[in-house]
Amino acid sequence: MKNTLLLFCLSVFFANNSTRGQVCPQPFKVVVLGSSTSEGVGASTPANAYVALFQNYLETSVNAGCEIINLAVGGTTTYNIQPNSFTPPAPFTVNPTKNIDAAISENPDAILINFPSNDAANDIPIAEQKNNFTRVVNYAASHNIPVWVTSTQPRNFSQARRDMLIEMRDWLEITFGSRYIDFWTGIANADGTINAAYNSGDNVHLNDAGHALLFERVKNSTLVTDVCYAILPIITRNLTLKGDYENVILTWNAEGLEPGKFVIECSKNGNNNWISVTEMNAWQNGQPAAAFSYVHQNALHLGSTLYYRIAAVHLNGNTTYSDTQRIQLNSRGLPYLVHSSGQKIYIKKITTQKLHYILYDTFGRMIDKNVLPEEQKTVIPTSNGIYILRIWNESGQTWTVKIAI
Question: How far is CA 168 from the centre of its chain?
């Protein structure tokens, strides 16, 4: 709800401040992948092409430092923008200087993909077109970069190929939802040909009026508000710690869940000498997560009193820190440590006393029995379940632990 409200407020802010500049608090970068329309073909001058109009809008009405890197090349298809590791069928090739890898190398905040009709013109099967879009968008998502995809566009060629454009248009809208931009409605006639008011004269490309309409569609899409929202700092909330013998369980949530990472840091005094425990993606499978958790295994080896904080690092380098939390481990003064991970139970003696142990399953059957060695003891039960560990010393003190694996 809070994220929805912020997006609404940003949308209103953009609407009310479209001529004042510096609406977005920080500049951002967009890379365009596409063919001749995105390259500017059909417009009477380069300045009248939709990408150039969008660049001008960003600089004058959003943030003067915004940048568009246009990698569009006339005549290309979705095969040409595939990752370097992909081998398309002949005669198609990947263009390593204008593909998704080249786009990612620019470290953009967003990528815009526009392929109006070349795939249909080359009779690339619909299934292959879908695979190509999916592969590229997922590849960008694996690098935490959001992608906006335009619809296909009308073209005055055979009805069979126009039917392909319509089928792909519908699939793109369903698949990419709020990150789909409509370059079809009003520009196309009912049969998939170009509305004469927007035809540049070659029956393929759009004129100035058409490019102006494409610009309006990009401007009014979710791209600007989402990207501007995304570059706001990630704020970590509600960090809590829980001790689990020698382990520390951290849980937290955050505001501004956008591409970036969490760095979990630990210190013995809470003031300095922070060490990085691990890094976690702020997105999971290319999407923001609602809550986060991490288990710092064997944390007691660093000390019995530990402090933790989380650095939230956005892709643009913005870093914010959570509050610092303190935890006391092994406060009961136990002479051993025990935890489970995967299919294994780990028992560690942290005393000079001689300790014995015996491990039972819930049916009372003995799984293992011995004297704890000086090094860590690992027991591997044959199945998941609840196990009972009993430990005792030479003086007769006994401790019983229930362990789940």
Answer: 25
Tokens of 27: 């500049």
- How far, CA to CA in Å, does 294 sit from each of 240, 291, 313, 323? 11, 11, 17, 17
CATH of domain 336-404: 2.60.40.3110
Matching residue, tokens 């079809």: 184
> Is residue 230 a contact partner of residue 241, using CB atoms and an 8 Å limit?
no
pTM for the whole structure? 0.58
The architecture of the domain spanning 2-229 is 3-Layer(aba) Sandwich (3.40)
Dump pLDDT digits (tens) for 303-336: 888 999 999 887 667 788 999 999 888 656 678 8
Rounded distance between C-alpha atoms, residue 255 and residue 6, angstroms: 10
Tell which CATH classification among 3.30.70.2750, 2.60.40.2060, 3.40.50.2000, 1.10.10.10 matches the domain 233-328. 2.60.40.2060
Give the model confidence (pLDDT) of 249-274 as tens digits: 999 987 765 667 899 999 998 888 89
DSSP-derived 3-state class of residue 57: helix
